[in-house]
## 1
Amino acid sequence: MGLGGWPSWMKWGQDGITAMCSAAVVCMVALVVSLLVCSLGHSSDGTGFSVTTILSVTGIRILVTLVGALIVYMLFESKRVVFVGWLMLDYFALLVLETRVLLKLACGPQKPVADQ
């Protein structure tokens, strides 16, 4: 948010800052909810996460983001285009982060291969 604050303020003023912060909150709430669900789905044998768990987490994240975005979109009268732009930017940035974390967790602990 720090990098986007100055351009948003200069171009759209207070509405730009509000749109940027609203989009960040929607995306962060979706990320936290999905990672909480992911922590509940950890396999008991310590081998990592199942593919079903990872796909469920992704679906939950999409659903929470969509619901949150629709609520904020309906409440945010001005600069809706700015909100949607920030929402897309934040969503994709956090999607990259979440994908890296989930893929790392899905592989489970890596054991070194013994030389033969």
## 2
Amino acid sequence: MDAVPTDPLARFVYRRPTSSVQNQPEFLFIVDNTHLIPRCDSATLWQLLNPELAPFPLKEQSGFFYTAQCAHYGLPERKTKDVAKKTLFVAYD
């Protein structure tokens, strides 16, 4: 099993577009050495944290997603979904 890098910046990955279909670069965070999670824009993240504000139902995301969003937004990583969601929600205040 691979060791988790001690430097959290080593867990960020930048991918340039490889085709004309995918025209935006991706900024990814590696969770548990297996999940590459892209950064979610702040408006969509806010709607995921407050589903009643979303214009249409959004698919609930995994705990890996919320852990990665904490890292993407410079917050402490949280290993459980509910704690990670609460950390992100409080950061908006």
## 3
Amino acid sequence: MSLRYRIISIDEAEFSFVVRFFSDELSEFDLRLDPADQTDPPLRCRTDYNISVMQDGISEDDLHKLILQSAPTDWLQRKGQVKTAPPTMAAAHALKGQTFAVKVVGNAEIDITHELQT
């Protein structure tokens, strides 16, 4: 998969911009939010991410790094895979509607040494 992205809007008052991610396998058109949207490029996509810039004077190289840190690469790869092989969510369906409790230890780490309690 080849990741692609572009900045589609900038909000200087909020120190942020929106970047759109897509790939060679999933086009912007494939990822459009509204199936009736036939504009090229689509007005909104599922992978339009708002990114805040917390550093003044950020360089272009650092901006690319910031963008790539937010890239949904795993999700795009998975979506590309399911174009040919439908996913199964049996485990999620089995757990749907149940409430689970886990112990949170220092620094918001989750203690996975104990079994989940339902």
## 4
Amino acid sequence: MIIYPGETSVCEFIVPYGSDYISKTVVSFYQDGKTILSKSDSSIADNEDGGSIITCTLTQSDTLKLKDYYVCSIQINVLSTNGLRYPSEPIEVRIGQQQYRQVMV
């Protein structure tokens, strides 16, 4: 996965928990050891394996907070209906160069 600053991105993650077991998710994005962005408005849908697909949409303003050419670590935190928190291992993705497009009017 490559995320481009200035563009809208949709990130999907599969977790081994059914949607009826998940009360909340937080997807956090880190660069240089700092939290750049945390999203708690992800959608959750069941998949055919009994787990869930977490879909996190990054807006243009979200992706502009990420530095070009830097690695970004993403961590998914699942809060269960019984109050337990399940953090994922960090996932490293590349941040591409900001795309500049010429628009004809």
